[in-house]
């Protein structure tokens, strides 16, 4: 239990940590082009990143609601939930706890533990967001996570600009990642200065999970070759952000001409074949993303495009999340379920 008084404003913090909070505030304003208003749901695992995020937003005067999912994958997971609940109470903030049998769901849906946990977690966060009428969900992803994400995307064959990692703001999913360009060491220092403890998830050391293998075996090799690899990741992310803003405008124009419904829509072939190849590929990516959270492999996207430009018909392409793309006589159909047309 946390009984002592915790900081509630920037004035309660040492100057260096007040500056950290202000830098994160500026980062959000630059990426949102506006101030945060209303309630923000913070996905809080009890780890150093999400605990620091919640306190930073709280000290910035933002109304925070804690949301914690107990995945029931570890014997001590209930202790993690209690730690988050105690921290929220010490800040006089609301806290929502959900307990989900991730292992059971993974078996039921024949999916991996990581994928199931991620999907259930974001579904839970969205439910809490709607319940409290919040505009945003904030997660504690930081610069170290961004470096890992770039390497993961490289292994998957993700194209540009997606290769440069997760976004700071995902307006379509109401997601904010305020710490994305902040190093983990700064978050550790921030909480330590306030004598605030956090939980360590031992499963993060289990290298049977791909992300953990990246973190503990592959990323250290990159950092050995270039100790400033996180700076490289940050620069790559910044360049991609500029490119993406340009492409988003181009893609929006194309999607203003689509027909159908959110789950089943099509684009005229005559419209697609007149576009530059680089834009066509991004249109496919956006169409798939609208139907399911995730990305198709670059090799499949290139095959789809080559088949389209050869003028072939009655061809099907399957993408992750049961997304189907069908080439018809006069249109290209995108659907989350197979339909006869």
TrEMBL record:
Family designation: Belongs to the tRNA(Ile)-lysidine synthase family.
Reaction equations catalysed: cytidine(34) in tRNA(Ile2) + L-lysine + ATP = lysidine(34) in tRNA(Ile2) + AMP + diphosphate + H(+)
Species annotation: Lawsonia intracellularis (strain PHE/MN1-00)
Gene Ontology CC annotation, any one: cytoplasm
EC number: 6.3.4.19
Alphabetical list of NCBIfam families matching this protein: lysidine_TilS_N
InterPro entries in the record: Rossmann-like_a/b/a_fold, TilS/TtcA_N, tRNA_Ile_lys_synt, tRNA_Ile_lys_synt_N
Domain tRNA(Ile)-lysidine/2-thiocytidine synthase N-terminal, chain residue ranges per copy: 40-216
One GO term of the biological process aspect: tRNA modification
Primary location recorded for the protein, binned into one broad class: cytoplasm
Classification via Pfam families: ATP_bind_3 (PF01171)
Protein name, per record: tRNA(Ile)-lysidine synthase
Swiss-Prot/TrEMBL domain comment: The N-terminal region contains the highly conserved SGGXDS motif, predicted to be a P-loop motif involved in ATP binding.
UniProt cross-references to PANTHER family, sorted A to Z: TRNA(ILE)-LYSIDINE SYNTHASE-RELATED (PTHR43033:SF1)
Top-level division of the source organism's lineage: Bacteria
Location of this chain's protein in the cell: Cytoplasm
Function text: Ligates lysine onto the cytidine present at position 34 of the AUA codon-specific tRNA(Ile) that contains the anticodon CAU, in an ATP-dependent manner. Cytidine is converted to lysidine, thus changing the amino acid specificity of the tRNA from methionine to isoleucine.
Listed GO MF terms: ATP binding; tRNA(Ile)-lysidine synthase activity
């Amino acid at each position: 239990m946390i009984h002592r008084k915790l900081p509630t404003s920037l004035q309660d913090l040492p100057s260096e940590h007040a500056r950290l909070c202000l830098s994160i505030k500026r980062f959000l304003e630059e990426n949102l082009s506006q101030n945060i208003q209303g309630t923000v749901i913070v996905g809080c695992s009890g780890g150093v990143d999400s605990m620091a995020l919640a306190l930073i937003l709280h000290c910035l005067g933002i109304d925070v609601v804690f949301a914690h999912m107990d995945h029931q994958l570890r014997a001590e997971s209930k202790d993690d939930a209690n730690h988050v609940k105690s921290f929220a109470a010490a800040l006089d903030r609301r806290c929502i706890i959900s307990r989900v049998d991730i292992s059971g769901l993974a078996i039921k849906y024949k999916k991996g533990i990581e994928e199931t946990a991620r999907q259930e977690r974001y579904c839970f966060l969205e439910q809490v967001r709607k319940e409290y009428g919040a505009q945003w969900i904030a997660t504690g992803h930081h610069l170290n996570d961004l470096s890992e994400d770039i390497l993961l995307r490289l292994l998957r064959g993700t194209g540009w600009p997606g290769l440069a990692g997760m976004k700071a703001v995902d307006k379509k999913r109401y997601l904010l990642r305020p710490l994305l360009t902040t190093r983990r060491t700064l978050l550790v220092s921030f909480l330590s200065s306030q004598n605030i403890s956090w939980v360590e998830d031992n499963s993060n050391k289990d290298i049977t999970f791909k992300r953990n293998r990246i973190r503990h075996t592959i990323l250290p090799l990159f950092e050995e070759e270039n100790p400033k690899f996180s700076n490289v990741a940050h620069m790559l992310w910044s360049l991609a952000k500029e490119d993406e803003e340009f492409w988003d405008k181009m893609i929006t124009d194309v999607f203003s001409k689509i027909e159908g419904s959110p789950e089943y829509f099509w684009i005229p072939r005559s419209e697609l074949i007149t576009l530059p190849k680089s834009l066509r590929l991004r249109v496919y990516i956006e169409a798939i993303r609208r139907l399911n959270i995730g990305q198709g492999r670059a090799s499949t996207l290139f095959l789809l495009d080559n088949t389209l430009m050869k003028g072939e018909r009655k061809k099907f392409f399957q993408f992750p999340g049961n997304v189907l793309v069908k080439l018809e006589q006069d249109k290209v159909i995108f659907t989350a379920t197979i339909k006869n047309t």
